[in-house]
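FUSC family protein
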Amino acid sequence: MNYLDEFKKFISSHYLSTGIRLTLGAVIPCLIFHHYGILNNLIAFPLGTLLIGTTDNPGPVHRRRNSLMIAIVTCFVVACVTGFSRHIHFVSFIEIILFGMFFSLVGVYGNRANSIGLISLLVFVFNIDDHISPEMVLHNALVFSAGGIWYLILFLVLQKIRPYKLIQQLLGENFVELGKLLSVKAGYYFAKPDYDELFNQMIHQQVILRENHETLREILFKTRQIVSESTNTSRILMLMFLDSVDLMERILNSQQNYSNLHRAFDDTKILRLFGTYISWLAAELLQIGLAVQGGFPSKPKHDLDEAFNKCQLAFDKIRERRMTHDNVEDFIMLRQILNSIQDITERIKKLHRATAYDVDLSKDYKPNLETDDFITKQEYSPRILLDNLSFKSSHFRHAFRVTLALIIGFLGSLFFDVGHGYWILLTIVTIMKPAFSITQQRNIYRIGGTVLGAFIGFMTLYLVKDDTVIFIIMMLAMIGAYSFLKINYFVASTGITLYVLLWFNFLNPQHITAVLQDRVIDTVIGSIIAYFVSSYVLPVWEHTQIKQYMKEALDANRKYFDNVSTIFTGVALNIGELKLHRKEAIIAMANLSDNFQRMLSEPKKQQVKMEEHHQFVATSHMLTSYIASLSTYAQTVGQSYLSEEFKPMIRQIDRQFETAIKVIEGEQNIGTEVIKESLPQNQKLIELLTIRKKEIKEMGIEKSAQSPARKALSDLKTINGLFELISTITIDEIKILNKISVEV
C-alpha cells in the first residue's frame, strides 16, 4: 500500500468533505451562540445538525433533499412523543417495542430509509433519559429540528455552488479502486503468484467497485440535469463513468490460465515485463482518479506508448525464437494478453485527456442507453413492510433483536446506577446490524475506539491547559469521526469519544471524570448486551442465505451468456441489453462474494461447507470473466465468425446452467449425463489449426506470419476456447453444488 497515495485520495474524497461539512455546520452556530451566551439553552441545535446530517448519503440531489426533510419531521415527532412520556416507564417500554421494531424494520426500503430509522432511534434514546426537564421537551425538539433545517440549507447552498463535486469525488474514487484491481491483476504475472490471495483481493475490489458503480449510476442516470443537459462537464463525467464500466469489464475478461502461462514462459522475462507494465497502467489509473477527485488535469507518470512497444517487441522476439507448430496455442494466449493490454492502454490515454475536460472528446458523445434500466429501483409500498412481518424475514429478526437488546439495556439503566444510562442504548443502536459479522466487528471497534478515545481525551485534558488548543483538538476529532464513520468505525468511534469528552469539558468541567468513566462503562455494557443478543437470539447466519446468492449468480451468468453467445449465430447485437446483463452479472457475483466474506467472520461452527462455497465463488468469478471475454469478441469480430457450429455448443452450455440451477433448487445428485457430455468440436477451427501448423512447419515463423489463417485462427481459437472454458466451469459448478447439501 502506498500511504502517500492513500492520503491524497482521502484528502480529496467525499468522506473528508462530509466530515468538514458536518463539523463546521455544528461548530459555527455553537460559536455564535456562545458569543451571545445562549449556548446552554440551544445545545440541541448542533446535535440536530450532526444527527440529521449523517442521513445525507450520496445520491441524486432530490433524494438527498427529501430524505433530510423526512428525517427532520420524523425526529421532531419522536423527540416530542418520547420526551413527554418518558417518566411513565410502562409507556417507555411500549415505545421501545414500537420504535425499536419499526425504525429497525424500515431498512427493507434501502440504505437511505435505514439511515433515517437509525437516527430516529438515536433521537428516541437521547430523549428517553431524565436529563431534560418536562418544560424543555418541546423547546429542545424545535431547536433540534432547527439544527436539521440548518444542515438542509447548508447542503442546498453547497450543492448549488458545486453541483458536480460529489460526482467527481465518487468517480475519482472509482478510478483509484479500478487501479487497485488492475494492480492485483498484475500480480498473476510475477513469479510464484499466490493464486488464493490474489483471488481474494480481486473479490474484495469487485465488491467495492460494485457499490461505487451503483451509487454513481443512481446519481448520473437519475439526475435529469446530468443525463439531458449539454454542458461539457456533465458530458465528460458521463463519458468517464461509462468508460470506467467498460474498463472494469476489460480487466475482468483478461482472465487466463495462469498456471499454463507460467509453465510455458517462466524461463523468459516476458511475463514479468507484462506484469510490470500492467502495474504502470494501474498507477496511471490512480493518477487519473486523484485528478478527477481534485478537479485538475492528470499527467501521465510513464510514456505508455514506449512501454507498450517494449512489450510488443519482446513478444515478437520470443515468438520468433521459440514458437513452433507444437506450442502455437501458448502464443495465441500470449497474443490475447497483449491485445488486452493494448486496449486498456488506449482507454487510459483517453481518460487522461478526459480529466482536462477536452471538448473534442465530448462533442460527439451521445448516450444511447435506456438509463432507467441501469438503476436499481426501490419500491416504497407498505406491502413490502407487511411482507416482512415474519420470523422468516432477516429484517424482522434484526428488528426483534434490536428491540430486545434495547429493553434489556433500558432495564439495566433503571435498576443499576450507570450514570449516563442512555449511552448503553446508544451503543446498542449503533452497533447492532442485520449481519452477525458486521455486528461483531463494530462491537470490537466500538469498545476499542471508546477506550482509546477516553485515554486520549484524559491525556489531552491532563497535559493541555489552553482552551484554544483543546478546541482545535476537538474540531479535528469531529472531522475525523464523521470522515471515517462509513469507512473505518474504529477511527470514527475513537474520534466521537474524544470530541464528546472535550465537549463535555467545555460545558461542565467539574464532572468530566465521571463522564469519562460513564462513557467507558456504559459502552462496555451496551456492547456485551449487543453481542449476546446478536449471537443467541434468532441469529441469521450467512450460510442460510448463500444458496439464494448462488442461484442469482447462476441466473445472471446464464442470461449474460445467452445474450452474448447468440451473436455468433447471427442474432443482431443489442449493446444496451448486453450492458444491462453485464451489470446484473457483476452485481450478482459481487453480492455472492460479499456474502462469503461475511461468512468468514462468523463462528467456526457456522462456517458450513466452506471449501465448497469458496470453490463456487471462485468458479463464478471465472465464469463471469470468461463470458465478459466472449462479449468483447462478440462486439468486435462476432459478425466475422458466424457459424451454425456454435448452436449445439450454446444449447449444451444452457443445459448445464439449467442443471446447476435445479441442483440449487433441491434436486440432488442430478446432471450425471450432462457432466459426461463433451462439447461439440468446431470443425472449422480444427481445419485452421491444421493449416497454420503446416504453414509454420513448411514456411517458418517469419514467412507464415503474413498468412490470412493466422489472424482467423487466433480469434477463432480464443472464441472456441472461451466456449470450452465456460462449459468446463459450469460442469465444475454442478459437481460443487452436488457436494453442498440442499439444507445450506
